[in-house]
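Input sequence (287 aa), recorded before submission:
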Amino acid sequence: MAWLWIGLSLAALAACLGLWVLGAPWAAAHDAARTRPPALWWPWVMALAPWCEPFVTWRMRRELRRWGPRAGLAAHWRADRWLAACVLAAGCGAVLAGAGALMATAPPRVGMLSALAGAALGFVWPDQILRRRAAARRVRMMRELPFMLDLLTLCVEAGLSLPAALHQVAGHAPEGPLRQSLRDAAALERTGMDRKRWLSHWAEHADVPGVRALVSALSQADVMGMSLGPLLRAQAERQRSERFLRAEKLALEAPVRMLFPMVSCIFPCTFLIIGFPVAVKLLDAGF
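Predicted structure, token format:
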């Protein structure tokens, strides 16, 4: 049995090395973007991408176009490569689940079901990571928004126009996802896009309620001819108060979230420590 596992391990290692040797030169020769591979598994993604391209639907393209900018996904992630990553994760999940069932000496039917379940979980795993990353990036942008509004207010009150102030904030604000999203949106203005359109593009891809409120207020101020300084200052105060309310809400939710760990982990240990001397005395007394 030991020699069987050693042989299977060596065969898997040889297969991985062979795929790496065949995939890495292909990826280096056919990657038009010439981007640095983000991980060691990138050659396999590039090798599977041409095979997955016929199966890419418009819904997949639309979902990736929607969630990619929100999660800060790099530009070299096209729909076919993303589907290839999902297929690769499904294969890894099937192999791991099947190997686990084989090591547990499970029946063949159980092993097949485990492999199918592992493949299904592996296929949806990249999409779940993308959505979680988008949610985390959104929370970070909501935290950075009040300070960015303060910088924008200072630039406007110093005499700069709104486009110049936005470019100054995009170039000199602290590094973060909000600055990167504003920089990407402001780059559209250099292509000749109307200011209202690239601001709407920024609000759509940022997916932050504060940014949408800011873009709406700027559009109304542009139509009505309002002064931007008091408007931006009021927006900054509003976002700061909303950030405080979100922090207060999370603080109030903390006891509820701590209830399950306390009941499942802390209370049994406490009852065991308290009840052990009582149980010993009862046993000594003959009960």
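Checked by second reader. Residues 32-36 have pLDDT under 50 and may be disordered.
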